[in-house]
Amino acid sequence: MNHIKEVKALPSFRVWIKFSDGVEGIVDLSDLVGQGVFSKWSDKEYFNSVYIDSESHTIAWPGGIDLCPHALYAEI
Q: CATH number for the domain including 61?
């Protein structure tokens, strides 16, 4: 399993991700904004607070929001 090594929030609810095997790319998350727990992303500062969770090795936001690293890899 490849781990996420870098993440950066981009405009329009997109994130740039780099995996441990060197694969990198942009994932558009705009279709999730406003749905359930992702309603917090409507606050751009909150969306920009994305980080790499050290336990799950995926991208996460404060308050327990995270995304499946396998799905992110497949999207890229």
A: 3.30.2020.10
